[in-house]
């Protein structure tokens, strides 16, 4: 049984890592008032760009840099639409996801052949931390990650701390997300802050996609993200727009996904399709309000226009 628990914990953390990265950036953007439903498209674009860069250069590091560049470009276009042109953030997000799915599918056909799949890509292997990786349960789950996995922990934890209301940055982000007009009158550069948060979302989501392609499977296939970007948005809602609760929600979703593979070993004879829906069932429970009331930032999805 201990081996099963180890496997469940290790699988849960492994599956939560891309979700952690994507939700950390999404939390930052939403706290500033910009809803990035396009996190799924950013992740998918990052995964494809990372795979393409690694495939062309033979270097996983080049793949990550390519993914970051693609994610920042995607985010810049999103920010242009949402912040400068004040387009509807829900419509632009859904449209961007559809374009990302079609564009990466077509690009994969051109680059990787008719099936659009790339296998055995250069990637990042696990780097166990001596001594710590042998701790029961937590050791394999936390201290046998790849370089991108450790980076995911650092980025997610760093953003959670930075968004604390005890930090100047956290207070500034909250001011812009709650009442952008008042924040502007107080001298805060609202558009610049929102641009910066959307760009950071693009970077973290692209890293999440690169982690999925280059650390988890060392491969790329159509729609490799499989809705993780949407789960990142749900995790922010489930975490009530706060840092550490959002990270906890990501871990719960990761464990739910891991249960699909651990269930037979612990005697749970449940059909695979039903287990596949488990993370989304948890997500519906989280956003239904049954786990507690939450309040979104007052300015979320509200375009900023300077008062005359």
From TrEMBL:
Q: How does it sit in the membrane?
A: Multi-pass membrane protein
Q: Which GO terms describe its cellular component?
A: plasma membrane
Instruction: Tell me which positions the record assigns to the signal sequence.
Output: none
Which residues span the membrane? 62-83, 90-112, 147-164, 192-214, 220-239, 246-266, 272-291
Annotated localization: Cell membrane
One Pfam family it belongs to = BPD_transp_2
UniProt keyword Repeat, yes or no: no
Q: Select a single GO molecular function from the record's annotations and give it.
A: transmembrane transporter activity
Could you list this entry's UniProt keywords, alphabetically sorted: Cell membrane, Membrane, Transmembrane, Transmembrane helix
| CDD domains reported in the protein's UniProt record | TM_PBP1_transp_TpRbsC_like
Q: What is the name of the protein in this document? A: ABC transporter permease
């Amino acid at each position: 049984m201990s081996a099963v628990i180890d496997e469940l914990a290790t699988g849960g953390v492994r599956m939560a890592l891309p979700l952690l990265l994507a939700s950390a950036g999404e939390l930052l953007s939403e706290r500033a008032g910009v809803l990035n439903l396009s996190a799924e498209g950013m992740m998918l674009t990052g995964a494809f760009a990372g795979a393409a860069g690694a495939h062309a250069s033979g270097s996983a590091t080049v793949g990550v840099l390519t993914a970051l560049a693609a994610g920042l470009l995607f985010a810049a276009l999103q920010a242009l639409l949402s912040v400068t042109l004040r387009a509807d953030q829900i419509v632009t997000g859904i449209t961007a996801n559809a374009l990302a799915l079609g564009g990466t599918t077509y690009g994969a056909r051109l680059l990787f052949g008719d099936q659009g799949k790339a296998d055995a890509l250069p990637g990042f292997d696990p780097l166990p931390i001596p001594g710590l990786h042998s701790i029961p349960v937590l050791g394999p789950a936390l201290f046998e990650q790849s370089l991108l996995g450790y980076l995911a922990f650092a980025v997610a934890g760093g953003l959670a701390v930075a968004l604390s209301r005890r930090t100047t940055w956290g207070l500034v982000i909250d001011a812009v997300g709650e009442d952008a007009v008042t924040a502007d009158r107080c001298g805060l550069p609202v558009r610049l802050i929102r641009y910066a948060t959307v760009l950071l979302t693009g970077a973290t989501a692209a890293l999440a996609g690169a982690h999925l392609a280059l650390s988890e499977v060392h491969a790329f296939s159509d729609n490799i993200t499989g809705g993780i970007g949407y789960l990142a948005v749900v995790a922010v809602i489930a975490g009530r727009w706060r840092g550490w609760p959002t990270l906890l929600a990501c871990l719960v979703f990761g464990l739910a996904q891991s249960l699909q593979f651990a269930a037979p070993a612990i005697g749970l004879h449940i059909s695979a399709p039903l287990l596949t829906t488990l993370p989304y069932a948890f997500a519906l429970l989280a956003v239904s309000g049954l786990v507690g009331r939450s309040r979104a930032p007052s300015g979320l999805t509200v375009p900023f226009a300077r008062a005359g």
